[in-house]
Design goal:
Number of strands: 15
Number of domains: 2
Structural class: alpha/beta
Strand order of the largest sheet: 2-3-5-4-6-7-8-9
């Protein structure tokens, strides 16, 4: 099994933390005001020496849909998410002329100056990728690097061939729920969930993998999300084409894309050819959110790039719960704890995928317990070994873990993340989330409490989910 350990073997020597102390990723939020009194909402996550400004996609979305699934980058970097004007929790705009690409890139300049950033490391997703391209062509000397994640085409002509990946039932239900959401429902957030849970299906590698996206589009000011003017930003650039201007962008650029995206793959290649210092990685089979579809490969590629190197196709072989950098064991208590958890999770997966159930159970404390879905608690190492053997006998051939975040509370580590179980045909059996509590035993971190449950719909994907209805004739 390949892990993300770069140049080191782990030794679990993390000291105990004082009982009254809680250590977790640093996070803060607030507003930056522009000269025309628009308040831009921002969230800072992490406390790395370098800052990455994240530019969200969608004409109506805020940045909250990106925060959970990009959190692993905050272990080594400071992520600066901001909501564009008229999106997320930023000011609700009534002046339609304020929705423009020109004003948006000016807002990025406001963000840069407010946080005293000499040059920007940008990460743009979808429409945000195109916005980054526009910013870089207008302020080429202000950009140090860019990660473009599934960016919209650099030229409008390349949108031809855009594919709607949803089946006819999903399209019907999506349109039905859109009407409900846009017509003053009693519970706006619930109506938003119903609509976007279906809408998101067409942007993931598969319907099942869409459930692996943790970001919540609906975590925002609903007035912004339902604004009829939000797409004026794209209208402001008309039949856009920044191909020739991209030649002036000298910053390092990494394109992280999937060939199962609704966006034509040729447009990603066009970006790569147009930028003089660019490289492209294709996560084969991934959709519009490759960080959720292929997290192991994605985060290894991104971290390699952010360390000043150019990742190659070898990152596609990555298989592990997270990226560990060589200095992590000498770093903060958070980084050391994170490294320990990742190594235990990688061992757990390695034993499971090689049917070593007794070895797997020894990664739990002597009084360890699993709280599995649809079953009573499983207590003690003998029962835990039998549990995982039974899961394998019922079809699980392999599984993966992906750590999102953790916090340290006293002598315990509390971790959360994602899992995916597959059969011998490499088909998805289950996708879900976990929360694990670790405790020191014999001077090594061991799993004390393992809790997980499925994120898949309770009924077959071919059926209509419980929270939806077909129109009655």
């Amino acid at each position: 099994m390949k892990s993300f350990l770069i140049g080191l073997s782990l030794i679990f020597t993390i000291p105990f933390v004082g009982n009254a102390q809680i250590i977790k990723l640093k996070s803060s939020e607030g507003f930056v005001q522009t000269e025309d009194y628009v308040k831009l909402h921002y969230q800072l996550l992490g406390q790395g020496k370098d800052t990455i400004v994240v530019v969200h996609g969608g004409g109506v979305f805020g940045s909250s849909y990106l925060v959970p699934d990009l959190t692993p980058l905050a272990a080594h970097h400071t992520l600066l998410f901001f909501d564009q004007a008229g999106a997320g929790y930023s000011t609700v705009l009534k002046d339609t002329t304020r929705y423009s690409m020109n004003n948006t890139i000016k807002d990025i300049e406001v963000i840069r100056k407010h946080f005293n950033l000499k040059k920007l490391n940008l990460l743009g997703h979808s429409t945000g990728g195109l916005i980054c391209g526009y910013y870089a062509t207008n302020y080429p000397d202000k950009v140090k690097s860019m990660i473009l994640m599934a960016p919209l085409p650099a030229a409008a002509a390349m949108t031809s061939g855009w594919v709607n990946k949803n089946d006819s039932i999903t399209v019907l239900l999506t349109e039905q729920n859109k009407k409900k959401y846009e017509n003053n429902p009693a519970d706006t957030t619930k109506a938003c969930w119903d609509y976007y849970s279906l809408w998101m299906r067409g942007f993931a590698a598969s319907y099942a993998e869409a459930r692996n996206i943790w970001g919540n589009i609906c975590n925002c000011n609903q007035v912004n999300l339902t604004s009829p003017f939000s797409y004026f930003k794209m209208k402001s650039i008309g039949n856009w084409d920044i191909t020739s201007q991209l030649a002036n962008v000298k910053a390092r650029v990494l394109l992280l894309v999937g060939d199962n995206d609704a966006i034509p793959f040729a447009s990603f290649e066009h970006w790569n050819k147009s930028l003089p210092n660019s490289s492209l990685l294709n996560f084969k089979g991934a959709g519009h959110v490759p960080n959720a579809d292929e997290p192991a490969s994605f985060f290894l590629a991104a971290e390699t790039f952010l360390q000043g190197k150019t990742p190659d196709e070898s990152v596609m072989d990555a298989f592990g719960a997270g990226v560990i950098l060589p200095d992590d064991l000498k770093g903060s208590p958070y980084l050391r704890a994170r490294a320990a958890v990742i190594e235990v999770e990688n061992e757990l997966v390695g034993f499971a995928n090689n049917a070593k159930w007794d070895s797997m159970s020894k990664l739990y404390t002597s009084d360890g317990v699993i709280y599995p879905p649809g079953a009573p608690p499983v207590m003690g190492r003998n029962a835990i070994a039998t549990f995982w053997r039974t899961v394998s006998n019922r079809g699980m051939d392999s599984f993966q873990l992906h750590l999102i975040d953790l916090e340290i509370s006293g002598d315990l580590l509390i971790a959360n993340g994602k899992y995916a179980m597959r059969n011998k045909q490499n088909e998805i059996l289950d996708i879900g989330k976990f929360m694990a509590i670790y405790r020191k035993e014999d001077n090594e971190w061991r799993l004390q409490t393992d809790m997980f449950n499925s994120s898949l719909e309770t009924r077959s994907p071919l059926e209509i989910p419980d929270y939806l209805e077909l129109q009655k004739e």
